[in-house]
């Protein structure tokens, strides 16, 4: 093996570098090598800076531009896989519904379905109504939300704090005349210059999560995600995110969580349940839960299991999250035996437990 021998006396000695006396390099060659080494050092330093820097501070010019870019946080579950929660309660309106609500409103503005000074009317179990109320306040629209008696007082008061008119309806099947969904449809017909986003049946709902939430999760995990867990309700999140991830990697597993007392899980014989914001209680064009190429498995969850997980998350992990998050986390924990080393699972924590404290489930 030869060795490098450098005889430094002046800068001109760069002309004479020999390798064991067998090879002579010119000054131009040496300068090229020096430049390459410097370039490699610069690139290495840039890599270190980028991968070790803190999350940049961003100044937003509008409340609605702060929607999205929520963090992924790892949960130390007893598994060789990496389990992350996407903290959607850090959106300005407090839930994942900010994304789809804003997307549908801006889509309606562009199409002309929603005119300046108009009224936004829709049905909501709470979070989506809060998002619409916030957006309406920020954009100058009147907002009317119909909801059911199951809603928490925190959600109800939050919508009203944003200035929305809220009408509480008795719990009934979605196609019942007295249901909050039926009332929202009638109000829209009788209210001039109004727009009905129709979150439960609007495909734009799923498109929002495809373009925004799905793309964000894929980027945050650097394309390493192998499993995705989300609540099943309107279908917007699980269908939109699921479709995006499947298009990127067909091997990604999409798991939906449903109430064990929903219309779907009881095969058409629904029973009352307490978890708000989830439950397949109607059939929609957003996704066909019986026949689709997105969802691998639908796991039914009881109120008791969801609420027990809520306490576990808060007291043992430091996550004070909403009711559906408890159901999702229970489902993910139930799924742990199927996960292996190298798997990367992401579950949605859609809202905060602060919206349910009066429910007495913590």
Structural class of the secondary elements?
alpha/beta
Order of helices and strands: EEEHEEHEHEHEHEHEHEEHHE
Order of adjacent strands in the largest pleated sheet: 4-5-13-10-11-12
Outline: globular
Q: Any idea of the CATH topology of the largest domain? A: Rossmann fold
- Kindly report the average pLDDT value: 90
Largest sheet: 6 strands, mixed
Number of strands: 13
Q: How many structural domains does the protein architecture include?
A: 3
Helix content: 25-40%
Instruction: Count helical runs.
Output: 9
C-alpha Rg (nearest Å) = 27 Å
CATH class of the largest domain: Alpha Beta
Strand content: 15-25%
Give a short overview.
37% of the residues lie in helices and 17% in strands.
Outline the fold blueprint:
Blueprint: E1 4-6, E2 17-19, E3 24-25, H1 27-52, E4 72-75, E5 82-87, H2 97-111, E6 119-123, H3 127-139, E7 142-148, H4 153-161, E8 165-169, H5 180-190, E9 194-195, H6 203-220, E10 227-231, H7 236-248, E11 253-259, E12 297-301, H8 303-317, H9 323-335, E13 344-349
Parallel strand pairs: 5-13, 6-7, 6-9, 7-8, 10-11, 10-13, 11-12
Antiparallel strand pairs: 1-2, 2-3, 4-5
How would you describe the overall organization of this protein?
By secondary structure, the chain is an alpha/beta fold. It folds into three domains: 4-52, no CATH class; 65-93 and 203-359, 3-Layer(aba) Sandwich (Rossmann fold); 97-195, Rossmann fold (3-Layer(aba) Sandwich), CATH 3.40.50.1100. The protein is 37% helix and 17% strand. The chain is built from nine helices and 13 strands. The protein has helices at 27-52, 97-111, 127-139, 153-161, 180-190, 203-220, 236-248, 303-317, 323-335; strands at residues 4-6, 17-19, 24-25, 72-75, 82-87, 119-123, 142-148, 165-169, 194-195, 227-231, 253-259, 297-301, 344-349. The chain has a six-stranded mixed beta sheet with strand order 4-5-13-10-11-12. The model is unreliable at 1-23 (pLDDT under 50).
